[in-house]
Design goal:
Helices cover 49% and strands 13% of the residues. By secondary structure, it is of the alpha/beta class. Bound molecules: adenosine monophosphate.
Length: 215
């Protein structure tokens, strides 16, 4: 069973949804750096406020802030994880490699979710997040309207501040320039798995599970 995993892919490629399914089935912690940053922003911490000006503009947060968040997460948890949306730059991938080498626990797998831009746009327009439990909900798939309540906990659904078309275009550009090179980075290390991400979440998850369970 693979226990140290990162999820790569453009915005709304299904990273968060697959992370949730992995956590439910295998009990592995699935930290989302984006979600941690959103919590730090709500709590108005220094790190959160420093990150906010980048996240709100659809720009990647500087590596040193992200590495601080990840290092502190790793120090507080056991060795198993599925990072959703980290690393997003080669500098972050190198920093993760060094942190894990020090612990003698190298990364097992990097999944790359591959989806068309039309799908990304459609998903971003439908995506809502529960303000209470953080569940990702898609209008038309999980709930009938943006005014519905969270199907998991009954909380109020909210739109992410960065889920606008303008911000999405900038996030896509950041992805292509800074994050896409990570696909080759992990391919060169023999741990990349490309996953077609257009299908329904359960069917994408079947491919993910098969890879996780292969020794
Ligand atoms: P996400 O929830 O993964 O879509 O991330 C939301 C936003 O948080 C991104 O658009 C970035 O501004 C920031 N962010 C999340 N993860 C990272 C990362 N690994 N590196 C830099 N910025 C990040």
């Amino acid at each position: 069973m693979k226990r140290r995993i990162v999820l790569l892919g453009p915005p709304a490629s299904g990273k968060g949804t697959q992370a949730e399914l992995i956590r439910e089935k295998y009990g592995i912690e699935t930290p989302s750096v984006g979600a941690i940053l959103r919590e730090l922003q709500v709590a108005k911490t220094d790190l959160g406020m420093r990150a906010a000006k980048y996240t709100n503009a659809g720009l990647l947060v500087p590596d040193e802030i992200i590495i601080e968040v990840v290092q502190s997460w790793l120090e507080k948890h056991d060795g198993a994880f599925v990072f959703d949306g980290f690393p997003r730059t080669t500098g972050q991938a190198e920093a993760l490699e060094i942190l894990l080498a020090k612990r003698g626990t190298p990364l097992d797998l990097a999944f790359s979710f591959e989806v068309d831009f039309a799908t990304i746009q459609d998903r971003v327009c439908r995506r809502m997040v529960c303000g209470q439990c953080g569940s990702i909900v898609s209008v038309g798939l999980h709930v009938t309207s943006a005014l519905s309540l969270c199907p998991r906990c009954g909380g109020t659904l909210e739109r992410r501040g960065d889920d606008t078309l303008e911000t999405l275009m900038r996030r896509m550009q950041e992805y292509r320039e800074k994050s896409e090179p990570l696909v080759s980075y992990y391919e060169a290390r023999g741990i990349l798995r490309r996953i077609p991400g257009e299908a329904m979440p359960e069917s994408v998850f079947a491919s993910v599970s098969a890879e996780l369970e292969t020794d």
